[in-house]
Amino acid sequence: MYTQLSPDGPLKLYEFIAMVTLVMIVLSQLPSFHSLRHINLGSLLLSLGYTSLVVGACINAGFSSSAPKKEYSLDPSKSTRLFDAFTSISILAAIFGNGILPEIQATLAPPATGKMFKGLLMCYTVIFFTFYSAAVSGYWAFGNKSSSNILKSLIPDEGPALAPTWVLGVAVIFVLFQLFAIGLVYSQVAYEIMEKKSADVNQGMFSKRNLIPRILLRTVYMIFCGFVAAMLPFFGDINGVVGAIGFIPLDFILPMLLYNMSFKPSRKSVVYWINISIMVAFTGAGLLGTFSSIRKLVLDASKFKLFSSDVVD
């Protein structure tokens, strides 16, 4: 928004990231996952609102006379197509890995199975309607040149914006608030790990003994995250790496392994070999996804400088 309103303005991307980091430092002092419940509800509404705006904007852009020429062909190189496919699988794993958080949260209180099922059903329903509608409409409107951040396609570097200014402005604001919520939710895991060692469970959550270490640790953690984000402005590539290294093992390998270890089905049973087959298939997919995602990250590394104002997709 800033570069559109003030193309020659002095502020850089890393300065905006620093501003966001300061806000996140303040919000990160919310003491527990339970204290984020209203923020989570707001996050859901923001996701639905953002998706509606983006899908409408993409449909409008697709029918616009100033829209770029659509090209749906794949890369002519077979190896590049193969690497892109596994990078995409890794990104999908990262997207659907969002279901891990409500699953973990559900297992903390009985009855775990019912709560887990409801949480995952809600999560995957939202993911399907938000991610897929934006992805399909964006690909339809811009073809294989669509950006992993579809707003960049709607606001091209050259030529007029392909959506009304107010739509783009509201969408960007929705994204900003949504990212605050996402950052808070995903940081809870790191906070839990840090505070298991730093907190004294015999004293109150807001006692001086627990409050001061919590403020210091969370502030340092957020500063570190902000510094890395400002230094390495990647987006789609990071999603692929996180999906391949983190979510594929967590979602598709570890559950099958734990099931076989816990319930010990017979080695002659269908369930046992289905689990083994899934583990083997997704181990291969994870390894190839990791290689292809890191390969793309390395290739894209030549396109940017540290603390650049251009996000690499």
Quick overview:
With 313 residues, the chain is mostly helical. It has eleven helices and no strands.
Helix and strand arrangement:
Blueprint: H1 2-5, H2 13-27, H3 37-63, H4 78-96, H5 100-106, H6 112-142, H7 150-154, H8 165-198, H9 208-231, H10 236-263, H11 270-301
N- and C-termini, Cα separation: 18 Å
Structural class comes to mainly alpha
The total of helices stands at: 11
- The portion of residues assigned to helices is over 70%
Largest sheet: none
The H/E string reads HHHHHHHHHHH
Beta percentage is under 5%
What would you say this structure looks like, in words?
By secondary structure, this protein is mostly helical. It has one domain (1-70, 79-303). Helices cover 72% and strands 0% of the residues. Helix 8 packs across helix 9. Pfam families: Aa_trans (PF01490). Keywords: Amino-acid transport, Membrane, Transmembrane, Transmembrane helix, Transport. Its main location: membrane. It comes from Thalictrum thalictroides.
Key attributes of the depicted protein:
313 residues; mainly alpha; 72% helix; 0% strand; globular
